[in-house]
# Entry
Amino acid sequence: MSSLFTVTHRDGRARRGQLRLPHGVVETPVFMPVGTRAAVKGVTGEQLESLGAQIILGNTYHLHLRPGDELIARAGGLHKFMGWDRPILTDSGGYQVFSLSDRRKISEDGVVFRSHLDGSLHTLTPESAVDIQARLGSDILMMFDECPPWPATEDVIRDAVDRTVRWAQRGRDRMLVLRSGAAADVPRATPDQVQFGIIQGGTHLALRDRSVTGTLKVGFDAYAIGGLSVGEPAATMYDVVEHTAAQLPEQLPRYLMGTGTPTDLVESVARGIDMFDCVLPTRNARNGQLFTRDGVIVIKNARYAEDLAPPDAECTCYTCRHHSRAYLRHLFMANEITSATLNSLHNLHFYLDTMGAIRKAIEFGNFDSFRQDFLRRLEKA
Ligand SMILES: [Zn+2]
# Structure
């Protein structure tokens, strides 16, 4: 049995488990709020703790460019720097290099790119992505992968899969060097940090198989599914998740990267996924969209101008206990900064609360009826 992860309950393909990380135990399935630049936008660490966030994300690309991973290492690592003592997962920066940076050039060695901030020239390689994340001292570091855009031709995706497997081996080798203590020049704020491999392959099942075979052969502490939620239809994503998750080791956590809507969470847990992250709850909060059990509320709509009901009558978050739709609409229309905070508190609470309900349903062995009720009610809206 892996000491990293224990499955405590199973219900169909859904699993309830515990993930043991250097900064604490995470109850799964889990949703991880995204704190790209060492902050979950609009909310404080104290608020995140009271929401029950168990683990949050940071991003290698953004933190490397600003304020710099060496500065963060000198501050004692990302946990100390941002004042968060629960687990942190850092993304490798692969996705951001491919989606944000200008004039990137991919070679076998890695990616040379210009910063989206000031145009300065940088290089990310499978090895440097490990070193940066070691300096940050996250609990979970992700391998550096190539993320082709969607849609892409089968040839482009096959080349990206093969290169990503070669990069996986280099990133894993570098991780093992750091673990052996043979790279004393790289400070490691969290010496016990674990490394996840990433399965790519777009929506081609045969290429997913190819990626699974190559990445499992390298041998990581656990595995993630990347390259989804990039524009493909939801039904296609669920097929790829089901197909891929079934091939990943039973005794290890499975992380679906960058997904998704409340429906995506429930549907992917049903297909064996244990970990999620997504910007939707915070990004949509800033855009005035509130997730509720009965669908999404667009708070700027005139129909809420004098609606004194809370966003979601069943929600127990701070926002719903204290404020009406009318007040939240007013804050949004007046462009008050508090609008983003109150909306983010509600949306994050909704996501974390949904994960809690999923965990309970798996424990009680009634996940399938929970899933049907949850989706029926969302669809009725
Ligand atoms: Zn609420």
